[in-house]
Amino acid sequence: MTESTDASELSKWVDMVDWLVDSLGDKPVGFTLNLGPHSLHLVGDEEDDVVCAQLQVLADGVLMLRRSRKPMDQLMFGDYSTDSLVLDHWYFDDHFEDCTDGYLFSHDVPLVADACVTWFRDNRGTRSADELGCEYRFPDEFPDPPPLLPTDRGV
């Protein structure tokens, strides 16, 4: 690889951090962004390790970053409260029953974006930011109820 190619690749990773920071701004609680190889199809179990990451918006502007070596399940939290979370601490334990390989809770969007990109950049199998794809999901919301009709109770 030439020096100009190295600089070009570095620029792509820096641009990805900026893109993530922009993409995570003003998203509702429950918004989820999944990143992984763009050729990955989430059908069945994968035999080989695949570098993946998931970012989810929690309450009070806190983001959760999870990393994995397999495609991750969509977490269905009963509560998005962040009152009891320790922020800015990387966890390596098995808190989630899926393939989570580590997770972080933080208000610091650039920190979360940089940690996410570093996970891909520094792991085998991801040679370029161009190899990555994403999918995102907004939380489901109840539709606005129809207006109540006045009733004549005939009293």
User: Which stretches of 5+ consecutive residues score pLDDT under 50?
Assistant: none
Q: Report the sheet-strand fraction.
A: 15-25%
Gyration radius, in Å: 20 Å
Number of strands: 5
What is the N-to-C order of secondary-structure elements (H for helix, E for strand)? HEEEEHE
Largest sheet: 5 strands, antiparallel
Tell me the strand order in the biggest sheet: 4-3-2-1-5
Termini separation comes to 86 Å
Put simply, the count of helices is: 2
Shape: globular
Helix percent reads 10-25%
- Average of pLDDT: 82
What structural class do you assign from the helix and strand content?
alpha+beta
Q: How many domain regions?
A: 1
What does this structure look like?
It is built from two helices and five strands. The chain is of the alpha+beta class and 155 residues long. It has one domain. It has a five-stranded antiparallel β-sheet with strand order 4-3-2-1-5, with helices on one face. Strand 2 (52-57) and strand 3 form a beta hairpin. Helix 1 (3-24) packs across helix 2. The chain starts with a helix and ends in an 18-residue tail after the last strand.
